Amino acid sequence: MRTPTIALFTACLGLSLAAAVHAEDFKVIANESVETSAVSLDDLKSVFLETKAQLGSGHVVPVLEKAGPAHAAFLKDCLAKSDTALSTYYRSLVFTGKGTLPKALASDSDVVDFVSKTKGAIGYVSPSAASSSVKTLEVK
pLDDT at position 3, please? Predict the structure, then answer.
């Protein structure tokens, strides 16, 4: 009887440790107009896969980095997709008329600049990126 309980505890502990890794690999930033200060991993994935267009009561606009360590970590830890798989996914959304290609920018500073100037924008950058002009969202 105790083995299933231990297995469940171990699985939950593994999930909470996995969430801690996210904060070390990238940080999620948002325009000041975004009403929330925290976002679940599921909601974040839904926003970037364009199955959800709101956080709280406000519309959000996802923005990606084109490459780099934060981009690789975000794809792996949040979206569970490779760069190629994500590109194919977005192309299928566009082809079927169910979505659009999100803006993809070259650097952390480009993402911060875009997010700071675009109402509802949400993106990710390296943990060390200067981001005083935007708010940092806690990923739960």
Answer: 47
Sheet order of strands, 27-30 included: 38-39, 135-139, 27-30, 121-125, 61-65, 103-105
Alpha helix (H) ranges present in 26-99? Answer: 41-48, 69-74, 83-96
8: tokens are: 């469940």
pLDDT surpasses 90 at 7: no
Residues 6+ apart with CB under 8 A from 62: 47, 48, 50, 102, 121, 122, 123
State residue 12's pLDDT score.
Answer: 45
Torsional class of 40: left (φ above 0), alpha (ψ -120 to 50), beta (otherwise):
beta
Residue 116 is predicted with a pLDDT of: 98
- Domains of the chain by start residue, with CATH: 2-139 (3.40.190.10)
